[in-house]
């Protein structure tokens, strides 16, 4: 079995957790995903560009971030092995992105073009359901994260991150984790040294 076949089996498990597809639906869907590889620190999508792809992460870590007027960036979300990636609002609405998507590590991905995504969802109701539920789940996660950022203390945000995703401390540079939590790097370092779970 080659790398792409193995990756498609991983994708199938993720998709089938949301909705079961018939053999015909899965074959049509799987045929539209293409293997790509990127080096570390590659910008996949820039602010002002329309996101053309939905990604499935086979291996690697990516981040979506916003770059403010003073060139200070704010990390919005991370994606890593086994998750979907891309600038979802730009992709689904086909409008210019306000965010960047970059690889933090060398990354192996499967990608699906918007043209294929749109055609597949229009053709197969089960795939439309997958797209709708996936988008709703992503929105739910973002709303939960928004509440955490707005109402929780620095220590509470740090504890939630470590409880939800303890592996990120080894995967992602701490400056990006601090940005993701809305903390300055010094506060993040103090919490890293003092908080025990």
Automatic annotation (TrEMBL):
Record organism: Larkinella arboricola
InterPro entries: cNMP-bd_dom, cNMP-bd_dom_sf, RmlC-like_jellyroll
Pfam family for this entry, one: cNMP_binding
Record protein name field: CRP-like cAMP-binding protein
Residue ranges constituting the Cyclic nucleotide-binding domain according to the UniProt record: 36-124
CDD domains membership: CAP_ED
